Amino acid sequence: MNFAIYGYGRMGRMVEEVAVSRGHLIFSVFDVDKTLEEPAQLKSVDAVISFSLPTMADDLLMVRTQQTFPEAMLALQTSVKEHGYQVTRVQRIDIGLTGMGYKTDKYRVVFVGKPKEIQYLVNKYPVLAAYMPPQISIFAESGDTVLITANPMIYAEMIDDEADKILFRRWESDVFSVFDDMRNADD
Q: Are 133 and 88 in contact (CB under 8 A)?
């Protein structure tokens, strides 16, 4: 795979070393000295690994459900669509994790969004390209299924236009609603 690394501190360098040792190509590295200016800079990249925006636990949204992993995955996709968003991609993460010794076959990253909104934001704010579309991680843990995502308001901190920040407030409200749907599915 072709990766880009956004944030080239200690973790960025470690990830580069591991990726290269496993036969992957680091296509680009972005950091303070070399910033992402245009989405076209990511044209040949399969995935961006970002360490540029430190996320605190307060910035993460999480829900735990007693649904099995397949039930929770279906409920998530249904709720996302009912809220007017598209599931743009589902990426298996478990293959890489099992290769590192973790014992799981139920770990996915679900990319969600409204393509026109995402395109608008990325065109106007290229720095957001590494974070779009937003992702929800979903994995099985101790008989439950856990969903985690970054609070969309962290992206609002990266832009100045108050009118555009309204999109992130709506996204945040919709994530809370989707996660409520996941909680209510247990009833």
A: yes
Architecture of domain 56-184 in this structure: 2-Layer Sandwich (3.30)
Q: Which of 142, 123, 129 is nearest to 68 (CA)?
A: 142
Fold of the domain spanning 1-52: Rossmann fold (3.40.50)
Instruction: Please report, for the chain, the start and end positions of each structural domain, with discontinuous segments joined by +.
Output: 1-52, 56-184
More confident residue, 5 or 113: 113
Classify residue 160 by its DSSP letter. Answer: -
Quote the pTM value. Answer: 0.69
What does residue 61 show for φ and ψ, rounded to 5 degrees?
A: -110, 135
Q: What is the DSSP letter of 34?
A: S
Chain segment 18-69, per-residue pLDDT in tens: 778 878 888 788 776 777 777 677 777 777 777 655 555 668 899 999 999 9
> What confidence score (pLDDT) does residue 63 get?
93
The count of other CB atoms within 10 Å of the CB of residue 51 is: 18
